[in-house]
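thread: overnight batch results

M.L. [08:02]
morning all. the overnight job finished for the chain we discussed friday. pasting input first so we're all looking at the same thing
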Amino acid sequence: MGNVITEMNRSREQSLERINAFSDGIFAIIITIMVLDLKKPEPATFKALSHLWPTWVSYAASYLFIAIVWVNHHYLLKNAKHATSRLIWSNFGHMFVVSLIPFLTSWMADTRLEAVPVAMYAFIFFLVNLTYLGLIYQTIPHFRHDNERARRLFRLRSIGTLLLALSASGLAFWHPGLGFSIICGCFLLYLRPEAPKI
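M.L. [08:03]
and the structure it wrote out:
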């Protein structure tokens, strides 16, 4: 009986390791795609380099975005006990949305932060947060925080950033710079991973 339980535990650990390995591979590919999309200025001058500011701003924001998503994802999956089919599909959904970041980063840079690309970028931030919450519920079905204050702060941050992302997406149609700034401000709220504890 003990051997059967040990084998089952080992199988679950291997399944969770595969989810982590797959996700880490996706993150690595996303960053590689973004780096390869960086354009070199034709004349080798600082002035020519400065004209590419939308590329550098978009890249820096998206690199931070990916880093935050990876840290929170890594921190969350450490709490996973079982690699259920719902957890696997939730992770696929989350990775799908995250994989769109390089496309939108490139689009924002090429259009010099015009309205529609920035609005779509903000909407992707909304979807990344939404799928992350879904991943939380599949990773830790009956999650709790150590205290009521932490639980309230977690919910406030989750709901607040979802509303801010939707607002930034709508606002970007009239003021792309402001919409983009709101999303960059939201990144700061996720610098410290706050996945619920079991």
